[in-house]
Design a protein that fits this description.
By secondary structure, this protein is an all-alpha fold. It has 16 helices and no strands. The chain has one domain: Up-down Bundle (Growth Hormone, Chain: A), CATH 1.20.1250.20. Helix content is 81%, strand content 0%. It is globular and about 60 Å long. Keywords: Membrane, Transmembrane, Transmembrane helix.
């Protein structure tokens, strides 16, 4: 699955350290004495930053070459990460929150940049796999966060991670500069204007259904950061619970990505309805059984099943959008998708932070998603028959 090229290298050198920083947020925020609800609010602001970055991004794509956007974004990443480090040293929670918000803004812009840039390239089978690989590397790297937290769960280690994150952004800027040879300004189109950007998500019946399906999955897995933190401490203890949940999440994200790649055997990544339905069913059952299980080995198994099946759903939905979007609307669709997903995920960072039995609510959202996936299958088959006829 691993393939080294500039896109992958940028993810490894710049984005993975950023994920490490995100994983250390609870430890960094502990230096300010924040509560669980405050932590949820903090993650919410980071996601809102992603939304703002998504709103700005389509306009930027129509004016500047991708490599220039990437260079500026990485340099801004370096600046905000450095200021976060300063905020920790001087214990300024105001500076910490503001910089984290802007870090979210830049992260949202880079995510859309990668999606749209890959969609502009001619080899769709290869770019589809690269899009999958980028997502797997970023989410799977939470495993590294868990390992770091097991080895040295300290504020000092969090500061080291921040330094690595800042340095990685500088190297990321260099990588984007070297990618200028295949960088060009996207042709201006109505699909990147805000009204058309959202209308492109519902331009066909099948798109409407996959959109609602993704919204339900986002609601079911909303507040992922709080889920990892709260479930980890509740089920595995305060000392190492968060680290264990991160290791399980990251490890199984890698495995899930590999399964998707093997299933498609080098072709463009496409949605497997049976695989998504089975994955949703397993997650729902695990969410129901997890709170009533008293055995630690059983809790680990159920946790593992949730994190194993989640990427089989989320990665395939993302790849399906990559497949069905046209090159001229890729930036708009990616931006709109990031906007609604981050708003939903961010809202539930707060809601799930103070609800004790959030697993029941999560399961209900995912049960509804099952019916939508079945409906999507029917619509896709109908569209295929129309094309054949």
């Amino acid at each position: 699955m691993f393939e080294v090229n500039p896109f992958v290298l940028q993810v490894l050198i710049s984005n993975v350290p950023t994920v490490l920083t995100n994983g250390f947020i609870p430890i960094l925020s502990s230096s300010f004495g924040t509560s669980l609800l405050s932590l949820g609010m903090f993650f919410f602001l980071m996601r809102i930053g992603n939304v703002v970055g998504s709103i700005i991004s389509p306009l930027i794509h129509n004016k500047f070459a991708p490599h220039k956007i990437g260079i500026v974004a990485e340099l801004l990443f370096f600046s905000t990460t450095s200021l976060i480090l300063l905020a920790v040293f001087i214990k300024s929670i105001e500076l910490f929150v503001v910089c984290a918000f802007f870090k979210g803004v830049i992260g949202g812009a880079i995510s859309i940049l990668r999606f749209a840039w890959l969609k502009q390239l001619p080899d769709f089978q290869k770019t589809s796999r690269l899009n999958l690989l980028a997502n797997v590397l970023m989410q799977g790297s939470y495993c590294l966060v868990g390992i770091f937290l097991l080895i040295a769960p300290s504020l000092q280690m969090a500061k080291v991670v921040l330094v690595l994150d800042a340095i990685g952004s500088l190297f990321g800027a260099i990588i984007f500069w070297k990618m200028k040879k295949f960088s060009k300004i996207t042709n201006k189109s109505k699909s990147n204007k805000y009204k058309e950007m959202f209308l492109s998500l519902i331009s066909t019946p099948a798109r409407k259904v996959i959109l609602v399906t993704e919204i339900l999955v986002c609601a079911g897995f909303g507040g992922t950061n709080i889920m990892l933190f709260k479930y980890g401490e509740n089920f595995f203890g305060n000392e190492y619970g968060y680290a264990i949940s991160l290791i399980l999440y990251g490890s199984f994200y890698f495995i899930g990505g590999k399964i998707i790649e093997l299933r498609n055997k080098g072709n463009m990544i496409s949605l497997s309805i049976p695989l998504v339905l089975i994955s949703l069913s397993i997650i729902i059952l695990s969410l129901i059984l997890l709170p009533i299980s008293n055995s630690l080995p059983m809790k680990i198994v159920l946790f593992s099943l949730i994190f194993f099946c989640y990427p089989l759903i989320s990665l395939q939905i993302n790849s399906e959008w990559f497949k069905i979007s046209k090159p001229h609307e890729a930036a708009g669709i990616s931006a709109a998708g990031l906007i609604y997903s981050q708003i939903i995920l961010g809202i539930f960072e707060i809601i799930y932070s103070f609800i004790n039995y959030d697993n029941t609510i999560r399961a209900l959202f995912l049960i509804l998603a099952i019916f939508l996936v079945l409906f999507y299958s029917i619509l896709k088959n109908a569209e295929l028959k129309e094309i054949i006829n």
